[in-house]
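Quick sanity check, UDP-N-acetylmuramoylalanine--D-glutamate ligase:
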Amino acid sequence: MKIAILGAGESGVGAALLAQAKGLEVFVSDMGQIKEQYKAKLATAAIPFEEGKHTFERILDADQIVKSPGIPDKAPIIQEAIKKGVAVISEIEFAGRYTDAKFIGITGTNGKTTTTLLTYHLLKSAGLNVGLAGNIGESLAEKVIENKYEYYVLELSSFQLDNMYQFKAHVAVLLNITPDHLDRYEYSMDKYAASKLRVAQNMTGADFFVFNADDENIAKAFKSEAFAGTAVPFSLKGAEGVRVYFEDKHIKVTEKFYEGTVDTSKSGLIGKHNQYNTMAAVAVAKLLGVEDKQIEQALETFENAEHRLQQVGVAKEVTYINDSKATNVEAVWYALDGIKQPIIWIAGGVDKGNDYSTLVDLAREKVKVLICLGKDNEKLKQAFGRVIPIIAETTSMDYAVRLSRSLATPGDVVLLSPACASFDLFNNYEHRGQRFKEAVEKIVLKK
């Protein structure tokens, strides 16, 4: 059997290595330049590859094509494959065929990474034999070569789900659906929502679909009468029929055979959106038999991915939080809403057509200082000039943090939550967050 792999990143190279391990004839093709680390893996395995082009004749001679999630269906090579009747699948679909492990598939427009990492942490801390893969940045296919795990927790993007057909999750999680990547879905929310709901495809009554009952787009798209799995809705608003909900800092799980009450008071996660993420992760843990106390202990020790409402230091009773990943207004809303203390807010960068009006009431209530960190701060100053008492400007992260320290009083929070892209002053949001952490470390060392 011949397999063509399109895209030689983490997922493509993983799929190539698995295909070779299973005795298939493999060819890898990437329209761009392949990173040296992946080129070395292919060369070491003696897998033939090309970069900077797609040789149509060789690719279309394959029995199946495994494509990178980043390649749209409208790409000429994919259109030609469809015309010729060559099956096009995702790395996750391909890898799933070579393992009997149970999958926990997690998707949603926002919160996927946090929920995936938290779910993995809860299960691993409880002693389950569990692996982590998917959109989190680790190839499932490469892990399936050794096939040493009983469970895999997978972060799944809509692009990955689009080319998954026979794949079945034992537990599927859908966190939310908000407009994103609509250019890949003919600017149709219905088509985008249908893509997200593929996470729950092929389920039987022994499988569980954990979903946010408060999300209007999920409610509109999910057809429960045509669903064969067991629905486990969660809610903060007391939606009808919920199985998982919050009550006085405790998560209650009422699903038959899996009941539990989990104290979340020692969790370091901040904000309402993280309450949803935590409900989903706790629900998965309970459905896999983890005890309440084990979950509580793991919640206390969980450290979120970098740059997502990450506490990076405390000095003179002032807390410094790195939320550099918050590159849009919605993400900043969650940050401001979740923090209860007075805030010194560092924001700015490359504006993406932001409408700041949804943040004005929160800013008026909670923000005592706004430090604009960017080359052009006029839009921020216009939006908040009448509601935030002190507004300053700088193009230096070190100065922004030093100024925050001088204006802060005990009990305050200094929050980097930019609402903007980073490219005016930094390489990316990670670089921006790292510079913030370094600047905070200087202050913490002097406390």
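Posting the structure with no commentary besides this: The chain has a mean pLDDT of 95.
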